Automatic annotation (TrEMBL):
This is 2,3-dehydroadipyl-CoA hydratase. GO terms for biological process: fatty acid beta-oxidation. Belongs to the enoyl-CoA hydratase/isomerase family. It holds the Pfam family ECH_1. It is an enzyme of class 4 (lyase). Transmembrane segments: none annotated. Gene3D superfamilies: 2-enoyl-CoA Hydratase, Chain A, domain 1, Lyase 2-enoyl-coa Hydratase, Chain A, domain 2.
Length: 258
């Protein structure tokens, strides 16, 4: 399948890589790009050969946000009828791990895409920001809600109200990213992690992601209930028997996704 705004590649076993590819617009996330990313993730969800997806941009720009030129053409009714929230939801609903490899600018919707990733590896030149305030708007793809839950109130308020960017080290300290590496290592490190995760039992990986994400949106008791049910369900999988048997027999497990 060929796409107009992204490239896809599966060079590493079990890992699909999505590269945002609108360099002329600093990888601005127009609606076509969002829909193509969502399409690929939906297909990857159904493909048992794919265990994790890496999403990346270019060496100087991950993504500079929503496409301002496209957005400018929409009035309030246009924004209300926009398909973009639907595509963001499709991206959020991807059930396998999504790993961001970020170099350069991740701004506005680009920073929000970072927050849709489950793990983010940043090059030390990466810059993160929610500059929408400079355009007379606010983040529109979950930025106000996910940023404050991720980095806490002081930094989220500073970023959203002032539009100031933060660097990779600050993003690391604030838990927006999991690791900072030299920019040349960003994609390689994301692939290493993705390949490792893709080698794990896929049902356990999927339920672990679901349970962890639930903590963002629920009270402790409900989250613990979900965790317990997922834990119980896993006791019925062949991979759990295989994992425990392999440990006892001191050999490598062979997971089958059942
Ligand atoms: N949308 C459309 N085009 C964009 C863009 C965007 N978000 N960001 C950059 N571009 C385009 C520029 O228009 C320019 O194209 P032309 O050469 O055709 O004019 C090209 O990319 C390069 O941009 P600059 O010349 O501005 O490059 P720079 O190095 O001087 O600055 C930058 C880089 C700091 C990223 C700057 O481009 C910038 O501030 N971009 C906008 C960032 C922004 O405001 N993002 C939020 C968008 S709104 C949003 O995301 C809403 C939401 O939450 C859903």
């Amino acid at each position: 399948m060929t796409y107009q705004t992204i490239n896809t590649q599966s060079a590493t076993k079990g890992v699909l890589t999505i590269t945002l590819n609108r360099p002329e617009a600093f990888n601005a996330l127009n609606t076509l790009l969002l829909s193509e990313v969502a399409d690929v993730l939906e297909q990857a969800d159904k493909d048992s050969d794919i265990g994790a997806v890496v999403i990346t941009g270019g060496p100087k720009v991950f993504a500079a946000g929503a496409d301002i030129k496209e957005m400018a053409a929409l009035d309030a009714v246009g924004v209300m009828n926009d398909d973009r929230p639907k595509h963001w939801r499709r991206i959020y609903q991807f059930s396998k791990p999504l790993i961001g490899a970020v170099n350069g600018y991740a701004l506005g919707g680009g920073c929000e895409l970072v927050m849709h990733c489950d793990i983010v590896i940043a090059g030390d030149s990466a810059l993160f920001g929610q500059p929408e305030i400079n355009l007379g708007i606010i983040p529109g793809a979950g930025g106000t809600q996910r940023l404050i839950r991720t980095v806490g109130k002081p930094l989220a308020m500073k970023m959203v109200l002032s539009g100031e960017m933060i660097d990779a080290q600050t993003a690391l300290q604030a838990n927006l990213v999991a690791e900072v590496v030299i920019p040349e290592r960003t994609i390689e490190r994301a692939h290493e992690l993705a390949a490792k995760i893709a080698s794990k039992p896929p049902i356990a990986v999927r339920l672990a992601k679901e349970a962890l994400l639930k903590a963002f949106e629920t009270d402790l008791e409900s989250g613990l209930n979900l965790e317990r049910k997922a834990f119980t369900l896993l006791a019925a999988t062949e991979d759990r028997n295989e994992g425990i048997a392999a440990f006892m027999e001191k050999r490598k497990p062979e997971f089958k996704g059942r």
